[in-house]
Each structure stands twice: as C-alpha cells, then as structure tokens.
Write a structure and sequence with these properties.
- The protein is an alpha+beta fold.
- It is built from 4 helices and 8 strands; from the N terminus they run ββαββαββαββα.
- The strands form 2 sheets. Strands 1-6-8-7 form a 4-stranded antiparallel sheet, with helices on one face. It has a 4-stranded antiparallel sheet with strand order 3-4-2-5, with helices on one face.
- Helix content is 33%, strand content 36%.
C-alpha cells in the first residue's frame, strides 16, 4: 500500500547562478543550517558554467530563511534567489516501490494528463516527492489516489 500525502505549507527556494564548487554549496547550506532552517527536498541542475539549486522548507521557517538568504546574498552576490509560497508538495511512499517498475512514470503521467506542472522532483528508493502549484494540489491528490486505489 502506498502512502500518498500533501503539504501545502511549504516554501520553494531557487538559487540561480550558483558556482559549481562543493565548498561553495556547502557554505550556502551551512548558512541556512546555522539559522535553524530545516530543509526538506533538495535538487540541483548542473549547467555548463553554474548550478541551480532548488530546495523546500516549511513556511514556519520563513523568518529564519529570510535571514539566511540575506546572509547568502551578502556573501555570494552573484547568486539570484527566488522564493515561491504558492506551491505544495505531494509525496508517494511505499517500501514496495524499491522493487516496482514505472511508479514515477505513472505519477508523471497522471499529473501530465491534468496539465499539472512539475516544479521540482526528488526521489529515493521508496518515495517520490513533487512540488506543484498550490492551486493544483487537490486535483493532483485525488487523481494520484485514483491511480493507486
């Protein structure tokens, strides 16, 4: 049985023009951690000369997040920072997923049929988490639950 849940109380942060350097990335996340912001999803896109890093956290961490991002802007002025609170996370989880083929394909197909944009995706052996527009969360949850009933 798959656990299907959503969280509409998140912030998605995009860091653009991040230097491709592990120490640089480590410093960014150390700064966020030092402000007691609990990060949930993290994904990165490696471009030719730079990286884009997306992450999510709870809206409860907004004040601390803003302080951390202000420090990051000061230390790393080349980084462009964007926040989006009009998002939700849906998560599909099951221990059986590690031996199942096509779970991601099924989820993406359901979302695609209903023209629900994928803003960010992270996976593990036993889960898929997707950030989608907030206004789509009810439809996404109902359609994914239909797929897995």
């Amino acid at each position: 049985m798959k656990l299907i849940e959503s969280d509409s109380h998140i912030i998605q942060v995009k860091l653009m023009n991040v230097e491709k350097n592990s120490l640089f990335v480590g410093d960014i996340f150390q700064t966020i951690s030092s402000m007691n912001v609990n990060i949930d999803m993290i994904s990165e896109v490696i471009l030719e000369d730079e990286m884009r890093i997306d992450f999510t956290c709870s809206q409860d961490d907004q004040k601390n997040l803003d302080e951390a991002l202000s420090l990051i802007r000061t230390k790393h002025p080349r980084i462009q920072i964007y926040q989006n609170r009009q998002v939700a996370k849906i998560k599909i989880e099951s221990d059986a997923m590690k031996d199942e083929v096509g779970v991601a394909a099924a989820v993406f197909t359901v979302l695609g049929k209903h023209q629900i944009p994928l803003l960010q995706v992270t996976t593990s052996e036993v889960s898929i988490s997707c950030v989608i527009p907030l206004e789509c969360v009810d439809l996404a949850m109902s359609e994914i639950k239909k797929e897995y009933k």
